[in-house]
Amino acid sequence: MRKERKLLGGGPGDIPIVHTLYDIYAEWNEIVEKFPKVQRYALGERVSLHTLTVLELVLTASANTKDQEKLTALQQASAKLDLIKLLVRLSKDCKCIGNNQYLHIESRLIETGKMLGGWIKRTQEDFRKTEEDKEAR
Predict the structure, then answer these.
(1) Which of 85, 82, 102, 84 is nearest to 35 (CA)?
(2) How much of the chain, in percent, has pLDDT values that exceed 70?
(3) Alpha helices, DSSP H only, in the chain?
(4) What's the rounded Cα separation, in Å, for the pair 82 and 90?
């Protein structure tokens, strides 16, 4: 499915979640072209913009060395991802996208959510350990 490519020449863009979000955005833009005009700008564009926001937050988190700031960016990305899932489901219910398109995009969003959830959990553990180490001193 996904073509192997380097997005940012070996930098933070080469983490798997960035590739997945990149692909979701590209696939969604192809789908949105077929939306009814009113929904294309009301609903379709919002999904596109929120996907870009999640991508930005993930890149911000990957570049951040402070666990608390990284965790904040990841939690914001997770909340936006939940909103994207809701808007995609609304797109299906409004008959802007077909069931197969919905299932495909939804599975990619679930995959992204799992990656994001794992990253959040690991960052929380790292933050907790750092705080415990500070208290032990």
Answers:
(1) 102
(2) 91
(3) 16-32, 37-39, 45-63, 67-93, 99-136
(4) 12
What domains does the chain contain, in order, with CATH numbers?
15-136 (1.20.1440.60)
Cβ(21)–Cβ(60) below 8 Å:
no
Name the one residue in this structure whose structure tokens are 């933070």: 12
- pLDDT for residue 123: 95
Question: Could you give the angle at which helices 67-93 and 45-63 cross, rounded to 10 degrees?
Answer: 160
Q: What angle do CA 121, 125, 126 make, to 5 degrees?
A: 115
- Burial class from Cβ neighbours inside 10 Å (0-12, 13-18, 19+) for residue 43 reads buried
Residues 24, 111: contact at Cβ < 8 Å? Answer: no
